[in-house]
């Protein structure tokens, strides 16, 4: 059996043998904040998430909105709705886990198929993106599970000291 067929057989068989390897779609329930550390919220699995109450978003969701619209919306469309040459992240994030998101943004990705080529550039060296990966992830996760509507969040929590300290450290300030 050649290596390509073997890889395909493994990819098809592993989820059958171990159903936990199949990533199920994210939902508001899975994304619910169960813990908080200096203004950053986490779900039951310890993955960064959002907290939106009475129309007020946590700082990281708001920051993610700002950072997304600074660097990502040019290709992926406003509010993650996609464009003619980049996928709708508000849709694809429903089935993308946190490590995969971090890897794709940091390292980039190239998809070629059906006569079409899509290239996601690597942003691992761009501090304006890399220093805010959690924020962008949190914002897109909120959009993916319909917790955050389109447009600028009307109200936001204050910027926590932990966010200020991390930003200064990451940006070199």
From TrEMBL:
One of its GO terms (molecular function) is electron transfer activity. Residues 63-126 form the Cytochrome c domain. Coiled coil: none annotated. Residues 155-167 have a biased composition (Basic and acidic residues). This is Putative cytochrome c protein. Keywords: Heme, Iron, Metal-binding, Signal. It comes from the Bacteria. It holds the Pfam family Cytochrome_CBB3. Residues 1-24 form the signal peptide.
């Amino acid at each position: 059996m050649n290596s390509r067929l073997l890889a395909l057989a493994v990819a098809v068989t592993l989820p059958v043998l171990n159903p936990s390897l199949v990533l199920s779609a994210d939902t508001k329930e899975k994304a619910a904040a169960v813990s908080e550390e200096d203004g950053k919220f986490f779900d039951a699995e310890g993955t960064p998430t959002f907290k939106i109450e009475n129309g007020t978003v946590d700082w990281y969701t708001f920051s993610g909105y700002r950072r997304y619209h600074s660097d990502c919306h040019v290709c992926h469309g406003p509010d993650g709705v996609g464009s003619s040459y980049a996928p709708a992240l508000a849709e694809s994030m429903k089935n993308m886990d946190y490590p995969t998101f971090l890897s794709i943004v940091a390292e980039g990705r190239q998809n070629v198929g059906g006569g079409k080529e899509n290239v996601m550039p690597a942003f691992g060296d761009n501090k304006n993106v890399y220093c805010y990966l959690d924020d962008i992830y949190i914002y897109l996760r909120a959009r993916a599970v319909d917790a955050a509507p389109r447009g600028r969040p009307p109200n936001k929590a204050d910027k926590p000291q932990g966010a200020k300290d991390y930003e200064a450290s990451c940006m070199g300030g």
